[in-house]
Amino acid sequence: MRRQRGGSGTLDAAGAGPVADALTLRGVSREYRRGVVALHPVDLTVPRGRFLAVMGPSGSGKSTLLQCAAGLDRPTAGTVRIGGTELASLKETALTRLRRERIGFVFQAHNLVPSLSVAENVALPLLLGGEQPDGRAVRALAAVGLGERGEDRPTELSGGQRQRVAIARALVTEPDIVFADEPTGALDPATAQGVLALLRQAVDRGGHTVVMVTHDPAAAAWADEALFLARGRVVERLERPGADEVSRMMRDLGRDAGQGAAREGWGA
Ligand code: ADP
Fold first, then answer.
1. Which InterPro entries does this chain map to (predicted)?
2. For a pLDDT cut of 90, what percent of the chain falls above it?
């Protein structure tokens, strides 16, 4: 069932009740060992149908935030909800199922299985869940412009095409949310633009929700909002970010991070 877009309080398509936001973090923090706080308490709501870019200098907590939000790591404190389901309430098998069925992942390296065909790669999340693809993999491939390449092996495709397959695989289960970790990090700028346009289209036409970690201001400019982390805290949020202002912000944060590191004796 395709649900209506919108934040908390929106009724679902059947009018049965409020539709939960795609992602909610309440007071989510992560301390790796005593004193090393990778993430200070973060509150964040991502409504359905939104494209959010997460930015910040290296070591600012982007991966930690993504891993906690996607149920790949357990926060030290706070609650994470995916489509209204609180992750802490789930045992490991239920969490694994939720990750497979209700979260899509796109990584910098596309992580396709080379021995499977392109169509089989896209169908994999369904097959692992014991479901028949029922044409869903074919439709997902067509939606990323690769409807004719289902029988090929991933090695027969270009880097950009492989990333399109990874996006089709991430969307095939109609997940509550897609997490993309530097999805264009290994692509040339022109190919990257195509992949970003596809993510934008998944949000605008498909009603999907995307949270993308990136260090590239040009990539962030495709998002509805850019959220900036520094030293494990959310320090700024920009609606409809432009590449220039994102670049400026990243320069400032990089400078601050460098000064902080030097102050604390980590720098040169
Ligand atoms: P980013 O993704 O922005 O580069 P990370 O989330 O990877 O930042 O890291 C945030 C902070 O947490 C850094 O100081 C990093 O060294 C630390 N950190 C990350 N993972 C671990 C870990 N497994 N054990 C200890 N410290 C970690």
1. AAA+_ATPase, ABC_transporter-like_ATP-bd, ABC_transporter-like_CS, ABC_transpr_LolD-like, MacB-like_ATP-bd, P-loop_NTPase
2. 81
